[in-house]
UniProtKB/TrEMBL annotation, chain A:
Domain Reductase C-terminal residues, every copy: 314-384
Keywords from the UniProt entry: FAD, Flavoprotein, Oxidoreductase
Domain FAD/NAD(P)-binding: 2-293
InterPro entries, sorted: FAD-oxidoreductase/Apoptosis (IPR050446), FAD/NAD-bd_sf (IPR036188), FAD/NAD-binding_dom (IPR023753), FAD/NAD-linked_Rdtase_dimer_sf (IPR016156), Reductase_C (IPR028202)
KW Ligase (keyword) present: no
Name the UniProt record assigns to this protein: FAD-dependent oxidoreductase
Cofactor: FAD
Source domain of life: Bacteria
UniProtKB/TrEMBL annotation, chain B:
Boundaries of every 4Fe-4S ferredoxin-type domain copy: 1-29
PANTHER family xrefs: FERREDOXIN
Cofactor(s) required, per the database record: [3Fe-4S] cluster
Keyword annotations from UniProtKB, A to Z: 3Fe-4S, Electron transport, Iron, Iron-sulfur, Metal-binding, Transport
Cited Pfam families: Fer4_13
Protein name per UniProt: Ferredoxin
Entry annotated with the keyword Hydrolase: no
Role played: Ferredoxins are iron-sulfur proteins that transfer electrons in a wide variety of metabolic reactions.
Transmembrane intervals: none
């Protein structure tokens, strides 16, 4: 292999490029990114950047010298516009055609939007520019409506409160994040919002961004100076339309994270079969982006000794004065049990069951060792009966 | 090899501790990284480099190879 092309110059793409070099690959690596910046980190955007603790110079993923050391053919500010699988070339917006013998697709996701035109007052939060534009507007007394109480919306709401902004958080489900983390943890999060003066309204569906605020499905106008739309994301696969690759909920990959011979997907954009859980998944977590980028680089370099990508997913999220950490596959769980601490104290460790197995663990304010022990239970697909005890369906 | 950690960047994920437990540890109270050895021996270099790539906060840096 002499020419590797990596499309998407962020966490997953950079990890793939770095791993290729660490594993001794000496050919060219063309790293293509449509953003104008060197690869930077996104989690701080809704935390330290929005909260004004950090300036933009803290978010690059690598020091310039370390990036230089990788010897990349770096094409920033340039979108990939098409893929010719048979001819093994990637087409760029500037008209260039870049040939490859190995391809990594790591184009991530973009925010879903609402209908309506809020002009400069309507925000999303995915890029550094998004974060800087929103934070410019977050001054004390300003009214912010956040649409969507997922992790991203909730983090932004918490940070905005800390800046003295009046925050209304609108969420269609009865309990925020319940499908992801369960009813009880969801209610704990809702209480944290109330405690910090966020006006959380659940069971509310927003129809559009309107003049002076957002319009609900029932026609009511919720007034706002600024609107942050945080209602999930769409995989960036448009440029792959018609290429012959399978596009469903993201780029469809097999258990090796391969989408076609010599073509791999990594990070938020990729849906692959995780043999550890026996199911396909697409994960929008920071550590997964890196781990998958590393895994596909290795599979690309060793076609005869490929390894299935079988990680235990991990994520964290900062909310007010606490940090949530979780391992495993929580969505679709059938039971949640708090095995240590107490939800009311916002110090606890909860374990999640799917079928007769430990599927995941979520903790707030717990020592790292406790969490690692339970991660191990997830990694070994431990039987619930052995690890926790009797099976009790959720809600019982 | 010399390794540095940018402690304020660390998010306490523990990835480094799982990969290189002789070089990295975490504080009990908040899981923030503790650098046990900033000049790890040769046999640990690969694990330290791996930790630097994996760290989800880009908080680990190998400053001298
Ligand atoms: C505000 C925010 C906070 C977050 N907080 C957390 C957190 O606390 N914990 C956690 O686990 N995860 C968090 N995440 C998720 C985490 O940041 C992502 O999982 C991670 O960034 C995914 O990396 P990626 O490389 O797969 O994709 P991305 O980071 O989305 O990168 C893809 C890159 O490809 C570019 N691109 C897209 N299309 C093209 C094209 N056609 N041509 C060229 N380039 C293209 C994009 O512009 C982008 O630069 C957060 C995300 C955001 C936005
Ligand atoms: S891997 Fe990085 S973020 Fe995680 S504990 Fe280690 S230094 Fe901190």
């Amino acid at each position: 292999m002499k020419q590797v092309v990596v499309v998407g110059a962020s966490a997953a793409g950079l990890a793939a490029a770095e791993t290729l070099r660490r594993e001794g690959y000496e050919g060219t690596i063309t790293l293509i990114g449509d953003e104008p910046y060197h690869p930077y980190d996104r989690p701080p955007l809704s935390k330290q950047i929005l909260g004004r603790q950090w300036e933009a110079d803290r978010v690059p993923l690598r020091a310039p010298a370390d990036l230089d050391g990788l010897g990349l053919d770096l094409r920033l500010g340039t979108a990939a516009t098409g893929l010719d699988l048979a001819g093994r070339t990637v087409a760029l917006a500037d008209g260039a055609r870049v040939p490859y013998d190995g391809l990594v697709i790591a184009t991530g996701v973009r925010p879903r939007r609402l209908p309506g035109d809020g002009g400069e007052r309507a925000h999303v939060l995915r890029t550094l520019d998004d974060a800087l534009a929103l934070r410019d507007r977050l001054v004390p007394g300003r009214r912010l409506v956040v649409v969507g109480a997922g992790f991203l919306g909730a983090e932004a709401a918490a940070v905005a409160r800390g800046l003295g902004v009046e925050v209304t958080l609108l969420e269609p489900t009865p309990v925020p994040l319940a499908p992801a983390v369960g009813e009880r943890v969801g209610r704990m999060l809702a209480e944290a919002h109330h405690d910090h003066g966020v006006d959380l309204r659940t069971g509310v569906t927003v129809a559009e961004v309107a003049d002076g605020g957002v319009r609900l499905a029932d026609g009511t106008l919720v007034e706002a100076d600024e609107v942050l739309v945080a209602i999930g994301s769409v995989p960036n696969t448009d440029w792959l339309e018609g290429s012959g690759l399978t596009l469903g909920n993201g780029l469809e990959c097999d258990e090796y994270s391969a989408a076609a011979p010599g073509v791999y997907g990594a990070g938020d954009v990729a849906r692959w079969h995780n043999p550890l859980f026996g199911t396909a998944m697409r994960i929008e977590h920071r550590t997964n982006a890196t781990e998958q980028g590393m895994a596909v680089a290795r599979n690309l370099l060793r076609p005869d000794a490929r390894k299935p990508f079988a990680p235990v997913p991990y994520f964290w999220s900062d909310q007010y004065d606490f940090r949530i950490q979780a391992y495993g596959l929580l969505r679709g769980h059938e039971e949640v049990t708090v095995v240590e601490g107490a939800l009311e104290e916002r110090k606890f460790l909860a374990v999640y069951r799917s079928g007769d197995r430990v599927a995941g663990v979520l903790a707030v304010g717990m020592p790292p060792k406790a969490l690692r022990t339970w991660r191990q239970a997830v990694a070994t697909r431990a039987a619930w009966r052995d690890a926790v005890g009797e099976l009790v369906p959720e809600g019982a | 090899m010399r390794v540095e950690v940018d402690v304020p960047k660390c998010v306490g994920s523990g990835q480094c501790v799982m990969i290189a437990p002789d070089v990295f540890d975490q504080r009990e109270e908040d899981g923030i990284v503790v650098l046990l050895n900033d000049r790890p021996p040769a046999e640990l270099h690969a694990d330290v480099e791996e930790s630097a790539v994996v760290c989800p906060a880009a908080a680990i840096r190998v400053v001298e190879k």
